[in-house]
Amino acid sequence: LYVAARPGMGKTSFAVTVARNLDRQGVNVGFLSIEMPENEIIDRWLSMESGVDSKKLGKYGALNGGEIQALNDAAAVLYESGIQIDSTGNLDISDVERKCRKMVSRGIQIIFIDQLSHIKNSEVKGGKATERTTENSMRLACLKKELGIPIFVLHQLNRDMKFRSNKEPTISDLKDSGRVEEDADRAAYSQRAEV
Question: How far apart are CA 157 and CA 161, in angstroms?
Fold first, then answer.
């Protein structure tokens, strides 16, 4: 599954919400965050679990007693969860494949990748983004088949779509899309990802 939206529209928050809900149903979740540090993923998770505004996290003095207890309870839930987060940046597609295989060997049943446009490919010469996206998308499709689990990939829409009179996104707005729409089992694209 590919989920695409413009920058800042909530792709990662949406993915964390889905991942958390799956975890609560007993699904072992892997989250490969190429763009965002692990602590930011954890903060989003804790905010959702505790109901404490994520803007307050990191500002311990601004929290009241009830919020501190809610965060402690949320941290205990997260500690007991089966989620595995890898926030290694600057990854080549071969690194992504290796990490996904390792996650599956540890019992992971679904993997979230944030996001496609940040995955490098040392085999694509000349730095052509569309060719890189095409090759990486094909390899992720093959990886999904090999591993036999769902892979949930976040992707970015072009920024310039906001200047059109009709801001409703289409597949053609996928950034350097290559053959993303062909490799996706289902392509969900939205102007704003509601969470």
Answer: 8
